[in-house]
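Q: A small favour: would you put together sequence and structure tokens for a protein?
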Amino acid sequence: MLDRVLKSISGGNAGNIRDIASELNTSTDLASHMIHELVRLGYLKQLKTENGCSRCPGCRDSAGCPQGSGVIWILTRKGERYVHTR
């Protein structure tokens, strides 16, 4: 299921645990745990945003972040390689 989290984040769910949990048909607690595990393993990087997401590298929603100020996750190179080989 961790691979599905990576694919969800690469598809645009960069900071919304509720959307990721819904897409995976699981709880927000489990989705959060999986995200933190992927950060620990080096597949994701956590970024703190300021004044929206336009400053975050790799963001597909640079015109305006739906999360506003807060935390988002982006794929690391390791995460990108994994997603693109699957």
The CA atoms of residues 7 and 83 lie 6 Å apart. The chain has a mean pLDDT of 80. Helices lie at 2-10, 17-24, 28-41, 77-85. Strands lie at 44-49, 70-75.
